[in-house]
Amino acid sequence: MTTAIPMSEAPGSGQPRFARSTAQGSAHLPEATQHGALPRVVSVGFNKCATRALAQMFARAGHQVVHHKVRDRWPVPRRAGAVIRTNLEAGRRPLETFEDYVFYCDLMVNDGRHTYDGADAFREIIQHYPGTILLLNLRDREAWITSRLRHGHGEFARREMAARGLSDEAALTEAWRTDWDARLSAVRAHMADRPGQLVEFDIDKDSPADLVAALPRYGLNPEDFHDIGNSRTRRLSPLMRRLKAEIAHRRPRFFGK
């Protein structure tokens, strides 16, 4: 796992630039970087990679968090991915209208007609917000695919197939494998010249304490990380499974921008 410590100001950002460190545990920070605004942290991993647990961890540390939805409008919150896509199409900054947050994650939107993941805008995010830290949250790829297939009792996979014009699960899982490999390769290549701004967190191999050590200025508590989206060990009665599946497939979904 990469750990990072702030070292100097990123040009034009007014925020600290980060440099790679292989030390484990909290690093001693130069006095000049102990205070001031924190850089944004944007998760560029996929959903079903502990995004809800990460959002909870940052929120409990007192940070403003965007997890999938921007809850600044009533009654329909905005989908963060839809906002990013619309901003880029209009030539605006990717996070325009919701820039005042510290942590962003699960930026995917799929309305059954189109599928888009705002995490793929990591290049534009770094371009417009050069002090941003990218958090690449990942896990075993095949376990991730299995989790995605189960998400929403299959409703998520159904929307994905519809949006991609696919007719069978095998084609969908192959598309997801391609997306996974391409994203990881592209993020690592793009951040090769600024490695201290990329933190990788493997939820299968790394501990919450490792993440806390990589981001020492954020006041994160490893005890606040719980795999709250985990359904791998959950056991439901057949009736409850049917009821939850029916609700997942039939409940109305709103995709406010």
| Helix fraction bin | 25-40%
Q: Regarding CATH, which class?
A: Alpha Beta
End-to-end CA span: 35 Å
Write the element-wise H/E pattern from the N-terminal end onward: EEEHEEEHEEEHEHHHEHH
Overall morphology = globular
User: How many separate structural domains?
Assistant: 1
How much of the sequence is in beta strands? 15-25%
- Derived from helix and strand composition plus strand pairing, the structural class reads alpha/beta
Roughly how many Å is the radius of gyration?
Answer: 19 Å
Largest pleated sheet: 5 strands, parallel
Structural overview:
Strand 5 and strand 6 form a beta hairpin. This protein is globular. Helix 4 crosses helix 6 (169-190). Strands 4-7-3-10-11 form a five-stranded parallel sheet, sandwiched between helices. Strands 1-2 form a two-stranded antiparallel sheet. It has helices spanning 51-60, 80-89, 122-128, 141-150, 155-164, 169-190, 208-214, 238-250, and strands at 3-9, 16-21, 41-43, 65-67, 69-70, 78-79, 103-105, 108-110, 115-117, 133-138, 198-202. The protein is α/β, with parallel strands linked by helices and 257 residues long. It has a single domain (3-250), classed as 3-Layer(aba) Sandwich (Rossmann fold).
